[in-house]
Design brief:
It contains 13 helices and 19 strands. Helix 12 runs parallel beside helix 13. The chain is α/β, with parallel strands linked by helices. It folds into 3 domains: 121 residues, Rossmann fold, CATH 3.40.50.12160; 235 residues, tm_1862 like domain (pyruvate-formate lyase- activating enzyme), CATH 3.80.30; 58 residues, Beta Barrel (OB fold (Dihydrolipoamide Acetyltransferase, E2P)). It is 33% helix and 22% strand. Helix 8 links the parallel strand 10 and strand 11. The strands form 5 sheets. Strands 2-1-3-4-5-6 form a 6-stranded parallel beta sheet, with helices on both faces. It has a 5-stranded mixed β-barrel with strand order 15-16-17-19-18.
Length: 441
């Protein structure tokens, strides 16, 4: 059997796409290799959201080139957003690459591999869903479900619309059938994926259209699905019906990832985020009203062009006020063909770094404070495996999306009650409870 090795960079959508690539390759008779030097096909699923992701990928690609020099029949493939973003130059810059394809063309990889002549090919049209392909899941009990592709927003710093195209929603009947099949296959937790999940369905014909909250309701009704997560929503579309779904639907988890990006309305306007600081905080207040114990996480960019000390202080104020359970924080880096890259008033790197250090301190302090509310409580924890730092303990995740390391017995995929005994900004620790079943907390 020919062997493949796949390296994934970037977001959950890329992880989902990679599972589909693996499933497709194994349906063609390939097996997964444990290292690149054992592979006949070396694949990369790339990200281009930040410059650091580009740099990391190029270093890996250079290693693949060296392996191809030793074994000229090795096929090198590059997929994902980076490939889409450099589609006009990928083969001239990297002549040792055999096949390149964008996120909407994953299925073309199979066509390339089964063709009579493996001459260099590029596939970059926006078509098809990877969700329609077979998958090889990382865990049998958890699954990504792609509900839409593309994005209709025009954030001035982001290249996603140019790499994944306009927003297209999958047919709800197809989605529910997929989730029913997953449940029948032992999946108990699904994560719904889209660049802007809560604008789902608006492009569908009226007779097939469901809103995102209606889709959540339909998934909640699928027997066997115990947990529903989703990423990522946009604050402008975080409406009350979606928030109420967290309060009223038993499978929808008590966690919302609500990207902030900046706490300054002036910066948000330059980012073209289409909401203000006040609108964002109004959404947070509505979440706290209907789901008081909801865990809130976010994304924040520091050093966006024109960001002043006053703008940055406003971001810190929002972080203090909201008290996030966690945050992904990023130093702004210009991306090709974006409006922000051409803006004046680029913030000096040393200023960005200093602001990042301040931001991380506040995020972690507030997350640590928020985490204390779990100490003494018993939470339902879905076991994912052994603790990464202590193999004698188990690791799982609560409905709040908090990692829990605990003492006890169980197997991956089981949901067990764990009494929380300690909490840091990122993880909880505990002891498996002797009670028959944890109450929802």
């Amino acid at each position: 059997m020919p062997a493949y090795h796949l390296t994934t960079f970037g977001c959950q959508m890329n992880e989902h796409d990679s599972e589909r690539m693996k499933g497709m390759l194994e349906s063609l008779g390939y097996r997964e290799a444990t290292s690149r030097d054992q592979a006949d096909l070396i694949l990369f699923n790339t990200c281009s959201i930040r410059e650091k992701a580009d740099d990391r990928f190029i270093a890996h690609l250079q290693e693949a080139r060296a392996l191809k020099r030793r074994s000229p029949d090795t096929v090198i493939g590059v997929g994902g957003c980076w490939a889409q973003s450099v589609k006009h130059e990928v083969f001239t810059r990297f002549p040792y690459v055999d096949v390149a394809f964008g996120p909407g063309q994953v299925h073309k990889l199979a066509e390339f591999l089964t063709s009579d002549s493996l001459t260099a090919q590029g596939y970059f049209a926006f078509e098809g869903f990877t969700g329609d392909l077979p998958a090889k899941r990382a865990r049998e009990f958890q699954a990504w479900v792609q509900i839409s592709v593309g994005c209709n927003m025009s954030c001035s710093y982001c290249i996603v619309p140019s790499t994944r195209g306009r927003e297209v929603s999958r047919d709800p009947a197809v989605l529910i059938a997929e989730i029913e099949a997953l449940a029948a296959d032992g999946v108990s937790e699904v994560t719904l994926l889209g660049q802007n999940v809560n604008s789902y369905g608006r492009d569908l014909a009226p007779e097939r259209r469901l809103s995102f909250s209606e889709l959540l309701t339909a998934v909640d009704h699928v027997s066997g699905i115990e947990r529903i997560r989703y990423t990522s929503p946009h604050p402008k579309d975080m409406r009350e019906d979606v928030i109420l779904a967290h309060a009223e639907l038993s499978a929808v988890c008590e966690h919302i990832h609500l990207p902030l990006q900046s706490g300054s309305s002036a910066v948000l306007k330059r980012m073209r985020r289409t909401y203000t600081r006040e609108r964002y905080l109004d959404r947070v207040a509505l979440i706290r009203e209907h789901v008081p114990d909801c865990a809130l996480t976010t994304d924040i960019i520091v050093g966006f062009p024109g960001e002043t000390d006053a703008d940055f202080r406003e971001t810190l104020e929002v972080v203090e006020e909201v008290g996030y359970d966690g945050a992904f924080t990023f130093i702004y880096s210009p991306r090709r063909e974006t409006e922000a890259a051409a803006m004046g008033e680029q913030v000096p790197h040393e200023v960005k770094v200093a602001r990042m250090e301040q931001l991380v301190e506040v995020v972690q302090r507030r997350a640590q404070e928020r985490a204390q509310r779990f100490v003494g409580r018993t939470l339902e924890v879905l076991i994912e495996g052994h603790s990464r730092t202590d193999p004698s303990r188990l690791r799982g995740r609560s409905r709040h999306n908090k990692v829990v390391n605990f003492d006890g017995l169980g197997s991956p995929g089981e949901t067990v009650p764990v009494t929380i005994t300690g909490a840091s900004s990122q993880t909880l620790t505990g002891q498996m409870s002797l009670v028959a079943r944890a109450g929802r907390s």
